[in-house]
Amino acid sequence: MTLRMTLCGEGVVPAVTTSPSGDLLDFGYVLEKDSTSQVLKLQNSSAVAVGFRVQMASVSPSRPQCGADRVPFLLGSYTDSKVQPTVGTQNYSGLSVFSVVPIEGSIAPGQSQNITVTFQPDHPSVYYSDRLTIELMNKSKVCVMDLKGAASSHNMYLDGGDRLTVPIESLLPPMITSQPQLTDSAVMEKPSIPVLVTLRASYNAGTITSAVRMLQVGCIRSTQPSKKSSEFLWDNVASLQQQGFSVEPSKGTVEPGHKRTITVTWTPPSGYKPYEVVQTRVPVTLKGDETNVYRVTLMALVSTTAD
User: Fold this and answer.
1) Domain range enclosing 256
2) What is the pLDDT of residue 117?
3) What's 33's domain CATH number?
4) Environment class of residue 161 by beta-carbon count within 10 Å: exposed (0-12), middle (13-18) or buried (19+)?
5) Phi/psi at 190 (nearest 5 deg)?
6) Which of 54, 107, 214, 232 is the most exposed place for a label (fewest CB within 10 A)?
């Protein structure tokens, strides 16, 4: 006796979308050892349940070992402030600076799943980064998103300018060495933080176009008690104007959780000689939970080539 059966079925392509969309999740600045979280939402519009898994580049088994993936980056144009390795600075503690919950699961038909991404750095750095990939059980990728964040030891920060360091750090904490005996004045005086801002005005057909750069002053919102607003001040603004520089605004306040854009403009002053480099240094004081001074170097010139 032979039993014959006809089997039929329908293949369904998983329909899963992610919100917010985009390829970058920027956590901004947080205080060291503090944390902040953002939520990704997966929506399953399929008629069947769909399984998913979240992968992080920093813990991927396929990631090259011993930093082999960073060699081409170090040999390339790392001076570009917008270029950064996929996996940047990590925590000294060895714990992941970016964590995800849940890392896998199943989404019922017509339902959604929230994925919480937490940024928790343990030391100051502006080079924290990683890459998050959400993959379905059929190996299709519904989300590939770069993660980025920065940490500060105090609640006010000045962001922007030219890159002065390579965006790759050693995971070894700074070495503790014996210090010479300091006087009271030396103990009170804190070292300033260097910032370089290069401005290139352009010359074309007898017309000079002013150079403009943007910096940002921010105040980190924290659960720790602090005064309502913080202050910033650019010193020696009058001397800057004599050399063709203008800063707007040169002083002001910033509320916690907000940032203000500072526009730095350079127009060659009268008597400027072609190919001359104009350079000056100005202190910028930030007063938040503590007072910090940034040593901003403004370097300007006129370029006849398109940048």
Assistant:
1) 156-163+191-303
2) 97
3) 2.60.40.10
4) buried
5) -95, 145
6) 214
Give the total number of structural domains in the chain. 2
Residue pLDDT, tens place only, 114-138? 999 999 999 999 989 999 999 998 8
- Residue 2 maps to a domain: no
Beta-carbon contacts of residue 289 (< 8 Å; ≥ 6 apart) = 154, 155, 156, 224, 226, 230
Whether residue 142 is found in the same domain as residue 219? no
- For 192, half-sphere exposure in the C-beta direction (CA atoms, 13 angstrom radius) is 14
Compute the average pLDDT of residues 239-263.
Answer: 93
Among 95, 128, 152, the domain boundary falls at: 152
Neighbour tally for 50: CB within 10 Å: 24
How many whole angstroms from its chain centre is CA 84? Answer: 9
How far from the centroid of its chain's Cα atoms is residue 71's Cα? 21
State whether residue 40 is helix, strand or coil: strand
Pairing assessment for the beta strands 291-303 and 193-204 based on DSSP bridges: parallel
On whether both 233 and 282 belong to a single domain, the answer is yes
Phi then psi for 181, rounded to 5 degrees?
Answer: -65, 125
State both tokens at 38: 């953002």
Instruction: Indicate if the pLDDT at residue 307 is higher than 80.
Output: no
Q: Hunting for tokens 């991404």 — which residue is that?
A: 117
Q: Are 47 and 109 in contact (CB under 8 A)?
A: yes
Alpha-carbon gap, residue 226 to 256, rounded angstroms = 9
Q: Which of 99, 122, 152 is the last residue of a domain?
A: 152
188, pLDDT greater than 70: no
Is the residue at 73 inside a domain?
no
- The rounded distance, in Å, linking the Cα atoms of 108 and 98 is 27
Domain-located, residue 11 = no
